[in-house]
Amino acid sequence: MEKALLKNYGNAETHKIDVYIAGGGYVALASAMKMQSDQIIQLVKDSGLRGRGGAGFPTGLKWSFIPKDPTIPKFLCCNADEGEPGTFKDRGIIDFDPHLLIEGMIIASFAFGASKSYIYIRGEFAFGAKRLETAIKEAYQKGFLGKNILGSGFAHDMYVHRGFGAYICGEETALLESIEGWRAQPRKKPPFPALSGLYGKPTVINNVETLSCIPAIISRGAKWFSSIGPEKSPGPKIFGVSGHVKKPGLYELPMGTTIRELIFDHCGGMSSDRPLKAVIPGGVSAPMLNANDLDTKLDFDSLASKGSMLGSGAVIVMDSSTCMVKTAYIINRFFSHESCGKCTPCRDGTPWLTKVLKRLEHGEGRIGDVELLERLCSNIFGRTFCPLGDGAVMALRGFIKNFREEFQYHVDNKKCKAA
Amino acid sequence: MVTVKINGKEITVADNTLILEAARDAGCEVPTFCYQADLMGLGSCRMCLVEIEGQKKLQPSCITPVLHGMSILTDSSTVTAARAGVLEFLLANHAMDCPVCDKAGECELQDMVYKYGPAKGAHAETKFKFHEKDYVLSPVIIKNSNRCVQCTKCVRVCREVVGVGVLGSVGRGDHQEETSFLKGLLDCDQDGNCIEVCPVGCFMRLPYRYKARQWDLKSADTVCPYCATGCRMVIEERDGVVVRARAQHGVGVNSETLCSRGRFGFDFIGNAERLTTPLVRKDGVLVPSTWEEAVAVIKENLSAFEGSRIGGVASPRLTNEELYLFQKLFREVLGSPNVDSSARWDSSGVEAFIKAAGMNEGGVSVFDCMDSDAVFIIGSQVSEENPVTDYIIRRISSGRRMNLVIASPRAMKLDSSAQTVVRHNPATEGALLKAIILTLNENKLSVSAGINAIKETKLTDCVASSGVSLEVIKRIADGLKNAESISILVGTEFLRFPEGIDGLDLLKDVCRKSLGKKLRILPLLDRCNQRGAWEMGVHPGFGTGYRAIAGRGMGTHAMLEAATRRGLDAMYVAGVDIASMYPDAGHAREALSALKFLVVQDMFLTDTTRLADVVLPSSAFAEKDGAFTNQEGRVQTIARLKNPPGKAKRDGDIIRAIGQSFERSFGPDNASLVFDEIRREAEMYKEVSLVFNNKRNIDNKLDNKEALVKASSALARGFSAWNGGAPSSEETGDYPFTLMTGNHLFHSGALSSNSASLSGLLRAAVVEISNEDADEMGVKSGSLVRVKGMTHESDMKVIVRRGSKKGVAFIAENFADTPVNRFFSRGRSGARVSITRLG
Ligand SMILES: Cc1cc2nc3c(=O)[nH]c(=O)nc-3n(C[C@H](O)[C@H](O)[C@H](O)COP(=O)(O)O)c2cc1C
Ligand code: SF4
Ligand code: SF4
Ligand code: SF4
Ligand code: FES
Description:
The complex is a heterodimer of chains A (419) and B (839). Chain A is α/β, with parallel strands linked by helices and 419 residues long.
């Protein structure tokens, strides 16, 4: 498969606009500018592109919710907060192919009439933020941004907004709060951002990878895109593989590649001869799968039917040496540390889970701890304000479901079975 | 309208009604922590989760609107389990120090756990603690974050209602703490609304700390004794000492809010300096005496003078019943027409103000005013004089589109809610209003006859004297023209400088008659019963209910003037410190000293009581029954909670005793009988309802219009417009600042200086200047300066106010040690001062 997203990954030159243009860059923008905006939205709908930020919401549909009234200012926000542990795919695009993202963003903005766009980039990505800023400057110089873009009369400004170092900033409404200068905490929905988003105006929030798919869809067509991978969940997808594999890293593969293919055909197999124990298929919120699930396809629907999710496509591979209690503790600690504090079940529930897990890990388990964890999980799940709390529970439930006996072993023997 | 089923019961409610409200309408209980009707919806505590048929997840009813056909369960087993789960989480890190918590017994967390909680919490881990000891945030606020339920009502009330945003959330997850930067309350209004909305014992009153258990308190529903917003509050006492004042959600115009004076200023009641026995001057000194002797001395002396040579001034903080009796005593017993209720306002200015503001047209609800398309506030430092009116305006204006215009020389907090902010020169409200009228006229409007009165006035002169650009004036005029309904909120600056009143009168005419607008005028007054004092007829120009009277008497100005000329022999002053409030200290003192006989009744020794021949110890609002009429014309009762200290008596009883020493039948005998007589005497009060439903209600019915006074046909005709002339233009060279005065946010009149809590917030006078002047002079807030006027000079600290008009200085009027009235002198409108930096 010819790469669409990572074709310039690792290239030391492609972040420069001239190199990008020489490689066929900004041609898609020029063709898009000749289309009607509705045509572009229809094209994206036809491609079947679903959001790569985690929820897999159809992108064309999201854009079509934006009111058509030209007198209302509209915004596009690119979610480059990339905070989910295990996830590092957006960075691959930002660092090596910033213009791919920018081109996608200009086309998107043109499609639904956004006059301004913001790239909300994770605070730690200082290098990427600089790259983007330079690239945006170049795009202005070439007339791809600013007033009267490519003579079309369309005007658009783009800004980089550096984040403030919290996972919750990646939740789309918290991201909006953060851009507006408030504390990043999720907003209630409705109203949905499409009607009342940034500064109360219609706003689309899309992930970096989602937007980076747009230029290829314009130049190669919707059919090309939808023919890759499963019908309901098509397209190229970046998988970020980490953990006990020989060659961890980013892989652009068709949606629907199986876990087995990914690990053994592309990543060179396990890093040692210890057998695979568990796989987290989509970032730490995604419930884990075990060695029996290796033929599961990596796409939105296949994973959902297995009770897990594709999420951000961050695949974490663990071999038999991994302690599930310790891993669950570390992951849960992340969630309780990142809980924004807004709603009770997540704010006070996840730290409680962490404290119990910590005790278990440190050989201070008490009888009934596993049941307590399960009870707390049900008091959190489905009752939180945003999906962060649910994510913490889904992750932990995945661990307990697959490796309950290891947890019980920690309670009974005050030590680990795996080690 | 949509129809939904709640626990099987069908109910029809308005579109967009929240499930929570619909459920409560249907009589189903839904517990909440973070929900409050007037604050931004949050949906964070998850106490109010309900089950909606067909939806997998429970939904927060406080932010979810009903949809037609929804079937909602508020008490299914899933819902009750979720509530118990939330409570268990809230208790996980909770301090559990209920035995030593001031909130115990009235804590929402306690109540909820009692009702909905798990019998036993399973949390057996180490609790997270924010701090070991409670920390003091300000002289009146102390905080314990370990008890917090993170509802952020404190943060929201501070930002959305008080409008300062001193509080915010710091930290994340279970480390999130609602506090202020560096744990200090810079720029805080010290109103304690954060305390009031806090469902648990996090924000607490410092003065109330460890004073009482809630169940030991005896309480009374009453009205705040400070400004004329007329906030309803509950005061509570233990062992005869009033220890707390609080507001109630859904009760009174103020709902859950009060300002610093209301919430903390009640402690003057228990001040050890209260007068407890009558004093009679013997051989030149005031010595303790008995009521019999004091009354006898009064009777003997007053009998010796002709009625017309006796004057009376009664405080606008007395009740309607007391004020009614006071004027009755003068008019019917002593045969004197000389009564007034203020040492600060000129009585003919008052008369013109009442006419211009249309006060005899009946009560005007502030909520109705806020329903207008355009709201114009002029002549009022509303954020400080009427803080809760400021909250009401902020709250309503943020929720609906209206054109809010604020005109004041000084910047104020409410400016941020306004579409247009106007900085005019002090005391030029009239010129500004006339400029607006002339602009309306210029736009070829048909105008009423009244406009002839200013035909000669030149727009350019008005513009120049107001110091406002023509462009801004035009913008205001356009705003008025484009509005169908207009409300003008007019403040005490018109009473201090009555020159502006004819402009107001005219604008009223132009709006109503020429432009055909629906116009309301709401006076913003700074003493709790100022309107009542006028309506009871404590004024030399009219009787009870603004009724015309035969001969015009003397007002305070005229009385003092007459006293210095030996044209007045005696005065009876009830609760007014004339010597320190009259805008010419030297003259007031001289006049009072020239009297042959002076009776003063007060709670404290004041500059005025010190000059008296007989001093009568009187009572605080918490010690009596009666009614106040607020600025809107809302008549509200106060209730007795305790007895006056020592031999002090209620003001009404004192007036009655003096009256009865002349005429045995003088009365009526008690407050309620007096009010019946008021109903008979004043048409406006005839049908006013004194019944106040103090029950909490869910829909915040704050606007009890039955309590508003009705229109009176009695009047308007006898009223004279102000003809006191224009402000004297003065040499400005040596004295570059115009001095303004009025109330401070923490202080109002003599009352507040006797409150330890309020004095703790601000003890000494400060002079406020604009940032422009401060920068020029190289001073900062806190720098020491010398303020020098023609008659007086004084050193004090400066406070810089961003956005105030250049060349304007402000000193509050209440500080005994820095009596601002020494800067003023009769016959000169306003005062000019110079300010120089010291050190
Ligand atoms: C706690 C939390 C963190 C999230 N972090 C990210 C993130 O870092 N990057 C991202 O693209 N989406 C993130 N999301 C998902 C976004 O809310 C949103 O769904 C997404 O940006 C939409 O873009 P898409 O339609 O292109 O997928 C997060 C969601 C949650 C609840
Ligand atoms: S679930 Fe609640 S506390 Fe957790 S991050 Fe979302 S809103 Fe914040
Ligand atoms: S007292 Fe008032 S201004 Fe101060 S923090 Fe509390 S709510 Fe805010
Ligand atoms: S301090 Fe009180 S009002 Fe503020 S969040 Fe905590 S519990 Fe709520
Ligand atoms: S009251 Fe509804 S979530 Fe708090």
